């Protein structure tokens, strides 16, 4: 209780330094938040692209519709498969015309093969899985040909891997810089109270007693900085949404995680700074 | 109460600060520690409140030994000591009362007992009316009185004073010294480092003189000290 009061009193006694600490934490986390927002939106975009991964198994002409329906039902039970839909010759023609827009005339009188369109569950859209599902679908005797844009899927996956690695490395770099800056801010706060700490020790305060208010203060600053960073990121996203491109924002879980990260940095940064100071004096 | 057994303190950078010192300070004694700057007075006092540990030998203070004291033991020991410095070491952003109360708060004293205790020691040092003043609103002598009040508030068995009058004019020095005498008369032992020879000459208290880290004179034991020279 006393530690809590001490932490609060410190905020009141050194409002400028406390505000500076919170602002520094906020801006460090804001930079991290902005990066997170970019990474999140790239992932969302890739996910949307990935949803379009589809196998199209063309059926030989003259295959009885019942056989096709039985095959489609069978394919739908594959663990990787989300849906398997039969597209009749007429539907195929209508779709082709719709997709070609002004060039739809080229299909005048044409006959397109029927197909089974197979969509895969999330997590099963990588090139290897798509290939293995294609091979299994191909075992049905009446399947003439099977297409799934092998090259396109490989490119998409390469892009995804690069984005993932770049995101991880940059994210770690941003997080490290935040930790260093926040650590320096907290160290400044500790040094500004070096005299107080030395007097506390002289009059018989234990190290844990000295440490406690700093930890609480660091935690509180981390939470406040985190909240401020979240607000700034949200405002930045509003501006981007209005003037540049529509984006998605962190869900509650990610926002809470960001806040927790701020609180943890505040807490651990304080523990390290005070610990180092107490060992040095 | 305070015992030094063949204590030597050596610093890697500056060399030997205290050399083979054996010493006993009894309950309620008043001891002057004197000697030129760098003679080892401050290091000796630091070893009493265990800010420094001996390189060899042992310091024992009220049952706490320098050989095995944990940081927690040292914190507990300091609650039974009062320490005063030349530069007062007051917190500028706290009033006299708050500076004194600080020493009680950090030891976990019950809140209800803090106010009366602070008032009592501030009265004892003659600052009853200045409790709400900040250090910068007080004279040097008054600031040192606040520091002494802070040192006394935990009822220490010994008050360690490192050049407590070093920053004060003659009048303030006399006032502080008179206060220390009164505190001693009430039963608290005092170990005071000073190079104010004038002050020492006027008193009949035990005097220990140090030179280059060694005790060269101890008025309580003139023969032994003379041998050591």
Task: Provide a quick synopsis of the model.
Chain A is an alpha+beta fold and 281 residues long. Chain A has helices spanning 2-13, 15-51, 65-76, 89-100, 127-137, 150-192, 194-202, 207-243, 252-280; strands at 54-59, 81-87, 115-120, 143-147.
What is the mean predicted local confidence, pLDDT of chain B? 91
Low-confidence region ranges of chain A:
none
Shape verdict of chain A: elongated
Beta fraction of chain B: 25-35%
Count of helical regions of chain A:
9
Count every beta strand of chain B, where a strand is a DSSP E run of 2 or more residues. 10
Beta fraction of chain A: 5-15%
Rg of chain A: 30 Å
Distance between the termini of chain B: 26 Å
Compute the gyration radius of chain B: what is it? 18 Å
Overall pLDDT level of chain A? 84
Helix content of chain A: over 70%
In helices, the fraction of residues of chain B equals 25-40%
Largest sheet of chain B: 6 strands, mixed
Order of helices and strands of chain B: EEEHEEHEHHHEHEHEEH
**Using CB atoms under 8 Å apart, which protein chain pair has the greatest interface?**
A-B, 16 and 22 residues
Count of DSSP-assigned helices of chain B: 8
Q: Tell the overall outline of chain B.
A: globular
Distance between the termini of chain A: 26 Å
Q: Sketch the topology of chain A as an H/E string, one letter per element.
A: HHEHEHEHEHHHH
Describe the structure.
The complex is a heterodimer of chains A (281) and B (229). Chain A has a 4-stranded antiparallel sheet. Chain A has 9 helices and 4 strands, in the order ααβαβαβαβαααα. The two termini of chain A are 26 Å apart. Chain A has helices at 2-13, 15-51, 65-76, 89-100, 127-137, 150-192, 194-202, 207-243, 252-280, and strands at residues 54-59, 81-87, 115-120, 143-147. Chain A has 281 residues and is an alpha+beta fold. Chain B has 229 residues and is of the alpha/beta class. Chain B is 35% helix and 26% strand. Chain B is built from 8 helices and 10 strands. In chain B, strand 9 and strand 10 form a beta hairpin. In chain B, helix 3 packs across helix 4 and helix 5 packs parallel to helix 6 (170-185). The longest helix of chain B has 16 residues, at 170-185. The two termini of chain B are 26 Å apart. The model of chain B has no long low-confidence stretch (mean pLDDT 91). Chain A binds chain B through residues 2, 13, 195-196, 198-207, 209-210, and chain B through 49, 71-72, 75-81, 83, 89, 91, 93, 102-103, 105-108, 150, 154.
């Amino acid at each position: 209780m006393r530690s809590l009061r001490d932490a609060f009193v410190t905020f009141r006694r050194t409002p400028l330094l406390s505000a500076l600490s919170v602002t520094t934490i906020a801006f460090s986390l804001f930079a991290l938040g902005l990066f997170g927002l970019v990474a999140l939106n790239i992932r969302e975009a890739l996910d949307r692209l990935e949803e379009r991964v589809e196998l199209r198994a063309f059926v030989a002409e003259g295959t009885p519709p019942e056989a096709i329906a039985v095959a489609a039902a069978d394919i739908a039970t594959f663990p990787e498969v989300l849906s398997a839909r039969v597209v009749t010759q007429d539907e195929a023609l209508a779709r082709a015309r719709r997709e070609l827009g002004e060039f739809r005339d080229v299909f005048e009188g044409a006959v397109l093969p029927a197909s089974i369109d197979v969509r895969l569950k999330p997590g099963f859209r990588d090139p290897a899985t798509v290939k293995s599902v294609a091979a299994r679908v191909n075992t049905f005797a009446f399947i003439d040909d099977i297409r799934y844009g092998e090259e396109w899927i490989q490119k998409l996956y390469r892009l995804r891997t690069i984005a993932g690695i770049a995101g991880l490395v940059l994210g770690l770099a941003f997080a490290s810089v935040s930790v260093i800056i926040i650590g320096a801010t907290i160290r400044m706060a500790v040094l500004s109270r070096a005299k107080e700490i030395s007097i506390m020790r002289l009059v018989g305060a234990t190290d844990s007693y000295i440490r406690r208010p700093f930890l609480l203060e660091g935690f509180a600053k981390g939470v406040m900085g985190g909240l401020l960073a979240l607000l700034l990121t949200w405002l930045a996203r509003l501006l981007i949404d209005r003037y540049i491109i529509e984006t998605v924002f962190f869900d509650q879980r990610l926002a809470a995680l960001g806040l927790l990260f701020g609180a943890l940095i505040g807490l651990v940064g304080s523990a390290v700074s005070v610990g180092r100071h107490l060992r040095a004096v | 109460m305070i015992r030094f057994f063949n204590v030597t303190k050596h610093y890697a950078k500056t060399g030997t600060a205290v050399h083979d010192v054996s010493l006993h300070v009894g309950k309620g004694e008043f001891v002057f520690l004197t000697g030129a700057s760098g003679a080892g007075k401050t290091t000796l006092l630091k070893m009493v409140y265990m800010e420094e540990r001996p390189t060899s030998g042992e310091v024992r203070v009220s049952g706490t030994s320098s050989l095995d004291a944990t940081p927690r033991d040292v914190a507990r020991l300091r609650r039974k000591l009062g320490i005063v410095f030349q530069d007062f070491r007051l917190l500028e952003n706290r009033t006299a009362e708050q500076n004194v109360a600080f020493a009680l708060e950090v030891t976990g004293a019950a809140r209800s007992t803090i106010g009366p205790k602070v008032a009592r020691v501030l009265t004892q040092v003659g600052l009853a009316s200045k409790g709400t003043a900040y250090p910068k609103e007080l004279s040097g002598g008054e600031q040192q009185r606040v520091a002494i009040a802070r040192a006394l508030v935990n009822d220490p068995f010994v008050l360690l004073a490192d050049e407590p009058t070093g920053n004060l004019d003659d009048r303030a020095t006399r006032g502080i010294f008179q206060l220390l005498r009164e505190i001693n008369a009430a039963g608290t032992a005092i170990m005071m480092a000073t190079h104010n020879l004038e002050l020492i000459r006027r008193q009949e208290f035990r005097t220990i003189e140090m030179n280059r880290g060694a005790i060269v004179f101890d008025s309580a034991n003139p023969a032994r000290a003379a041998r050591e020279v």
